[in-house]
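Request: Give me one sample?
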Amino acid sequence: MTIRYRFTDRHGGTGSPPYDTFNLARHVGDHPADVSRNRARLKENLGMETIVWMEQVHGARIEVVTSMHLETVPACDAIVTDNPDIALAVMVADCIPILMYDATKGVVAAVHAGRNGTFLKIAPKTVRTLQERFGCTPTDIRVVMGPSIHACCYEIGDDLAAVVEKNFGKGYMNGRSLDLQKLNRDQLTEAGVGEGNIEISEVCTCCDHDYFSYRREGTTGRFAGVIWMEG
């Protein structure tokens, strides 16, 4: 089983400012026809007939996807499938797009890990879903964290910083800057995923103008992390 994945950027699509040009989200105010064209272009680029999206709500609900006829899973922040005909997508503009896979069992997952989802431990909960539903072993699971906002740009308020330090420890804060990638990595290793199986992109979306960034722009589009299998 071969696992494929890709992280898009903001280039190569159809769209006008501030969504220029490859916005893939329907909920941000972009013209629906442009979003539809961009999603169709993504399918063509990947060679996939089905890409399943999420109505992301910054929670910790995880859904297993079996139907090729479902475009969007409502009210969830992680989706999992063992169907090689389905690609899974997560949309972001600073949150961490986490892609997981177990090539031995033939299972993939797409996870939306923003601040709230991270606090709710959505990444290790997805690992548990892979274990319980598909018999995966954590040491066989590989994880890729795509472009996202890094501590260099992720300053939070004093009250929230105190919450992080109280619940997770001071090691994730540098002054008022939160290291969301480190927090997710440590949650995953605690769940049994080997640190060597976790890849973290060094791209900060707030620094890099090739990506949409809510922190930098406010009203903006969303890029995507997409994962699928080839048997």
Observations:
- The chain has a mean pLDDT of 97.
- DSSP finds six helices and 13 strands in the chain.
